[in-house]
TrEMBL record:
SUPFAM superfamilies, A to Z: S-adenosyl-L-methionine-dependent methyltransferases, TPR-like
UniProt-listed Pfam families: CheR, TPR_19
UniProt protein name: CheR-type MCP methyltransferase
Gene Ontology MF terms: S-adenosylmethionine-dependent methyltransferase activity
SMART domains (alphabetical): MeTrc, TPR
Alphabetical list of InterPro entries matching this protein: Bact_Chemotaxis_MeTrfase, CheR_C, CheR_MeTrfase, SAM-dependent_MTases_sf, TPR-like_helical_dom_sf, TPR_rpt
Organism: Nitrospirillum amazonense
Source superkingdom: Bacteria
């Protein structure tokens, strides 16, 4: 195929796609981009690709239908169960058994795994099946298996959980028999028990904030982010890797694809040499040791000072070092330096025990390290001072949900919403909780409330209560979720 669009349009469209949906097409991939643009133009009813591209470039903001068509036609949906089998062997024989043994020894039966860029769900369901084989007492565990993608069509197909023969190539027939039900036409549906282990959600690795309690993208033990970094330029890919690193707990694991970039891209992490797979780890560094004391030779005698006439000493002035502001610790939090922020915030609270903002930030730091008991303790500390802190009730709900206590989370969210009925963050949390529990009508109601509360705001306005997410991004998220649940944005009775 020969390219027909002029380079000027392709270059401008590449920049537009990078900014709007985080897909980067360098010049050597413009032919692939043009093919996708042609398919999107046909889908959206344009007379030709040139007219479509000019319209997309001149539009102030691409609407949801356009973004969905472009994401659907420009991203690759080619995947299958247990793709890159060596990675799953390492997970099943090394990484997960070690994590499971650690958690059993600590008495904390919880695991958190994120399939970033999950496509049509085969990777996430493969992880769920693997965990089921490794955990004979799975019902005793709190397992978070988050699966996200930028393509709403892929997410809808993933949630449906039905697959054809092509998704099973290389899969043990016994595994398929155990976890799938045969349907007419050669299709197979995933077991409801396995499907319930996975939460699918829309998430843009370039634009959406993470790690964040609100999107459940924090304190992950394992992240799979495969065949996606190749869509970003070098700066974008580096930023994504840094944020994924922040989303891992200490000693957590990142599994990219072997085609996802050179080792220098992953410098925040440590390469782990497993044969046949690309694996990195967030190694927690020990505190530096004190300098060694050399005892092989006696110390040199100190020189005898020459006497000098006594002179009056100047008065001693005690100078205290400046106390870091809360903004300083917030900056450490944003950089993923949670340990440093914890140390400073606890010192701050030792002298100012009623500082609610410091306690809430400390709770978030602990939660992003996976220390949920400590995080809940500091939320409760705020509530001990101020029972009507909507933010503390909301944050406590996020922690309770992460600990697997949905009933307590729902109660805390109800308190938060009573105190702050216009809180977009709390409506979002309630929508997500209702959705995870199968309360579809309640979830749609809260998504509609979110869209109503966002009306009148500019798309690029920042929502500080949602870790810096923009109004436009949340409007897209709410609209996608509402539509996926069968809702009509115009309302329902």
């Amino acid at each position: 195929m020969h390219r027909t669009l002029p380079d000027t349009l392709l270059s401008a469209m590449s920049d537009r796609l990078s900014a709007s949906i985080g897909l980067y097409f360098p010049a050597d991939r413009w032919m692939d981009m043009e093919r996708g643009l042609e398919r999107a133009a046909v889908e959206l009813g344009y007379p030709d690709t040139v007219a479509a591209v000019r319209d997309w470039l001149s539009a102030g903001a691409l609407d949801r239908t356009q973004l969905e068509a472009l994401a659907g036609q420009l991203t690759v949906g080619e995947t299958y169960f247990f793709r890159e089998p060596r990675s799953f062997e390492i997970l099943g024989q090394n990484i997960l058994p070690d994590l499971i043994a650690e958690r059993r020894a600590a008495g904390t039966l919880a695991l958190r795994i994120w399939s970033a860029a999950c496509c049509t769900g085969e990777e996430a369901y493969s992880l769920a099946m693997l965990l089921d084989t490794l955990l004979p007492d799975r019902s005793a565990w709190t397992i978070t298996l988050l699966a996200t993608d930028v393509n709403p069509r892929f997410l809808r197909r993933a949630a449906e959980g039905t697959y054809g023969e092509w998704s099973f190539r290389g899969v043990d027939p016994a595994l398929r028999s155990r976890y799938f039900t045969a349907l007419p036409g050669g299709r197979h549906r995933i077991s409801p028990d396995i499907a319930r282990m996975v939460t699918f959600a829309y998430h843009n690795l370039m634009d959406d904030p993470y790690p964040a309690l609100e999107s459940n993208t924090n304190a992950m033990d394992v992240i799979l982010c495969r065949n996606v970094l190749m869509y970003f330029n070098a700066d974008q890919a580096g930023r994504v890797v840094r944020r994924l690193s922040h989303a891992l707990v200490d000693n957590g694991w990142l599994l990219p694809s072997s085609v996802d970039g050179a080792p220098t891209l992953f410098t925040p992490l440590t390469f782990v040499p497993f044969d046949g797979a690309t694996v990195y780890r967030k190694v927690s560094l020990p505190a530096p040791a004190p300098p060694p004391v050399h005892r092989h030779s006696p110390p040199m005698p100190a020189p005898v000072p020459t006497p000098v006439p006594a002179a009056p000493l100047p008065p001693v002035v005690s100078v205290r070092p400046p106390v870091p502001t809360l903004a300083h610790y917030r900056a450490l939090y944003d950089l993923g330096r949670y340990g440093d922020a914890v140390e400073g915030l606890e010192a701050r609270l030792a002298v100012a025990p009623a500082d609610e903002a410091a306690m809430l930030l400390l709770a978030r730091c602990y939660a992003n390290q996976g220390h949920l008991a400590e995080a809940a303790h500091w939320c409760q500390g705020v509530l001990n001072h101020n029972r009507v802190s909507a933010e503390a009730h909301h944050l406590l709900a996020m922690i309770q949900q992460e600990r697997g206590d949905a009933a307590a989370a729902a109660m805390s969210l109800q308190r938060a919403l009573f105190l702050a009925p216009q809180s977009i963050a709390t409506h979002l949390a309630m929508a997500n909780l209702a959705r995870s529990q199968g309360r579809i009508r309640d979830a749609r109601k809260h998504y509609r409330n979110i869209m109503g509360l966002l009306q009148g705001h500019r798309p690029d306005d920042i929502l500080p209560d949602l870790e810096g997410m923009t109004v436009g991004r949340l409007m897209d998220v709410a609209a996608h979720a509402h539509a996926a649940l069968g809702g009509d944005p115009a309302g329902e009775g």
